[in-house]
Design brief:
This protein is mainly alpha-helical and about 55 residues long. The protein contains 3 helices and no strands.
Length: about 55
């Protein structure tokens, strides 16, 4: 079981840069066996799928 995070530590976390999130999505997509697994992995990392630009 994971330890509960300290609220002070959570406040020190910075938002993920767009380029880092983009690279992480590519790695997750490469290793996921299907779309559902990809969504689960992205959720575990705290990043969602990329939004399509119209």
């Amino acid at each position: 079981m994971a330890a509960k995070p300290d609220p002070a530590e959570i406040g020190d976390v910075e938002p993920l840069a767009d380029s880092t999130a983009r690279m992480a999505r590519r790695v997750v997509a490469a290793y996921a066996t299907d779309a559902d697994e990809c969504r689960v992995f992205l959720s575990m990392l705290g990043i969602g799928p990329a939004k399509l630009e119209a």
